[in-house]
Amino acid sequence: MNQARTNPLNTAAMHGALILYTLIALFPVFVILINSFKTRKAIFREPLAMPDADSFSMIGYQTVMKQGDFFLYFQNSMIVTVASLFFVLLFGAMAAFALSEYRFKGNTLMGLYLALGIMIPIRIGTVAILEMMVATGLVNSLWALILVYTAQGLPLAVFILSEFMRQVSDDLKNAGRIDGLSEYTIFFKLVLPLVRPAMATVAVFNMIPIWNDLWFPLILAPAEETKTLTLGSQVFIGQFVTDWNAVLSALSMAILPVLVLYVIFSRQLIRGITSGAVK
Amino acid sequence: MTALTLTNVNKSFGKVHVLKDINIEIEEGEFVVFVGPSGCGKSTLLRVIAGLEDASSGEIRIGDDVVNMTPPSKRGIAMVFQSYALYPHLNVRKNMSLALKQEKQPKDVIDARVAEASRMLNLEEYLDRFPSELSGGQRQRVAIGRAIVRQPKIFLFDEPLSNLDAALRMNTRIEIAGLHAQLGTSMVYVTHDQTEAMTLADKIVVLRDGRVEQIGSPMELYNNPANQFVAGFLGSPAMNFFPAGLVTEGDDRTMGVRPEDLYLADDGALSVHVSHVEKLGGDTNVIAKLGDQQITARLFGQHDIAEGQSLSLGFDADNAYFFSPEGARI
After folding, report:
1. Which of A171, A178, A189 lies closest to B72 in CB terms?
2. How far apart (Å, rounded) are the C-alpha atoms in residues A30 and B316?
3. Are B85 and A181 an interchain contact pair (Cβ–Cβ within 8 Å)?
4. Is B126 part of any domain?
5. CA pair distance B289, B111, nearest whole angstrom
6. CA dihedral for B150, B155, B159, B165, sign (positive or negative)
7. Are residues B214 and B283 in the same domain?
8. CB distance A178–B88 less than 8 Å?
């Protein structure tokens, strides 16, 4: 067992497989990045070549900056993603705490009901959602997107978090009760810090689909002032002509914020794991 | 004055009846130990006293007040848990002072009480450390300190020594006994370990299946057990039980003799076959077969007894206990 673990051949094979996987996963991103810095002709002549003195061009980025209000799109995407994640985590954690901590009639049934959403794609209800948004006057507002994404993320969040919260020691919560902490303080100060790794997992799972989504922005908030980044990039894709420089530049820039958010959450993830290791 | 009175306390979880008509009185300053096998309801009883579980029926009185509807933090109790249950994100000082801050005590009172408790428990140099930086014994002392600073009317201990290793367990046991002598506060202590019960208690409450089997001082329970369960539970090694018919022809009672009351005798009443010998230096434990019953004899001093050998054991008639087939003392 121990020998198998330290066998250099196995180690090499393991690292080889991981490196190969990383290369495959990063390759499309890499191609987008290098091509965003090339002239249109160079993109089609040799898509895999690095930009050189001849083919280097910032035309794509210039177009993106000039056309449309890209910073507004950016801001919209950021607001929608961060606000949705905040609500998913807050309400998901609260529901999970109630389900795992309190004994009440229909507890299991409620848990199952809340988890049902994992199996049913929310897009099936698009027409009904649109009707509701029209009725409440939320169409073309960021709230429409935030509400839908929160609903979309909650089932999985409740499911994962309630599983983790069951593992938080009862003694700790009871010690808090004897010391006179309110249920809210116990939840926010004692339980939430201990399930931080689970929160980070839920955040990462939810963040990327929300950031990349085209469907709901297109249907619920297509107005100029509420466009998200993904929707905004679509202006460069036409039926007959596509401005590839602009599209690639817009996509390159769209990667950055998610990357930053991801780094923040994965830090939390690692910190959570190591703090949990020491009981 | 009575510190705690339980009157006809019952507790059910759904259809499972966990505590059945519990009646206990605890005097001011008394050290009471709830002891029983796992699943007997002793921890649940402690939680009911603490207010972490509601009693299904019955009355709980702390001092002169009925506290059935009082939340845990207002009952004037403090609890020490088996898993320490320290707040992982707070250092030792803040762990100990949190409850006092919740009570809105003035800062100088908090500082004075934390200083006093940490002096008693030798925790002064660890006040700025976090729980994860402490050893098991230190963590348990912090948990005890957290209880002391509240100056409760009753301390509740839920198997506080179970997570400690043997040597530390003994030291901490002595510390708890010293603490009780120093503070003079009533303490309720739950354990499944009969040694802890015998050494710490002024009064032992033996529980089985949610019922009180017997209440009394350690020596009362040891010398005068009410039934076969109590007789078998207290004392280590446990009391030997065998059909009295093996000694007196035609007797259908169960006879009980403590291992320490057996001695080697040439014409002893019990002829046994040695199956195992434990030599402890000061004592020799002989585990033997009496027919198909297992018998343990604790012989003082060192004896040269081999496995497989036949042996004759005697006892004084005064030291024999008799029980009916249902387990009641006769």
Report:
1. A178
2. 92
3. no
4. yes
5. 62
6. positive
7. no
8. no
Query: Domain containing B199 — which CATH number?
Result: 3.40.50.300
Contacting residues of A for B84, CB less than 8 Å apart: 171
Q: Under an 8 A CB cutoff, do A174 and B98 touch?
A: no
Contacts of A152 (CB under 8 A, 6+ apart): A117, A122, A206, A209, A210
What residues in B contact A189, CB-CB < 8 Å?
87, 89
A107 shares its domain with A193: yes
- pLDDT (tens digit, 9 = 90+) per residue, B194-204? 889 999 999 99
Q: How far apart are CA B216 and CA B4, in angstroms?
A: 16
Nearest residue of B to residue A194, measured between CA atoms: B88
Residue B8: phi and psi, rounded to 5, are 45, 45
Q: Are A176 and A238 in contact (CB under 8 A)?
A: no
pLDDT of residue A271: 62
Task: Please write the tens of the pLDDT for every residue from B128-167.
Answer: 999 988 988 899 999 999 999 999 999 999 999 988 888 8
User: Using beta carbons and an 8 Å cutoff, which residues of A are at the interface with B?
Assistant: 169, 171-172, 174-181, 189-190, 193-194, 275, 278
Q: Where are the alpha helices (DSSP H) in A192-243?
A: 192-194, 196-212, 215-220, 229-233
Are residues A191 and A222 in contact, defined by beta-carbon separation less than 8 angstroms? no
Give the one of A169, A193, A194 whose C-beta lies nearest to B85's C-beta. A169
Closest among B32, B302, B70 to B157, alpha carbons compared: B32
CA distance B72 to chain A (A): 5
Question: How do residues B202-253 score in pLDDT, each as one tens digit?
Answer: 999 999 999 999 999 999 999 999 999 999 999 888 999 999 888 888 888 9
> Which CATH number covers residue A105?
1.10.3720.10
Report how far residue A65's alpha carbon sits from residue A252's, in angstroms, rounded to the nearest whole number: 13
Chain B nearest-CA distance from A186, in A, is 10
**Can you tell me the mean pLDDT for A40-52?**
83
**According to the model, what pLDDT value does residue A85 have?**
94
Partner residue facing A178 (CB), from B78, B87, B89: B78
Whether residue A122 is predicted with pLDDT greater than 80 in this model: the reply is yes
**8 Å CB contact of A179 and B83:** no
Mean pLDDT calculated for residue range B75-90:
90
Cβ distance of B73 and A178 shorter than 8 Å: yes
Predicted TM-score (pTM) of this structure: 0.80
CATH code for position B250: 2.40.50.140
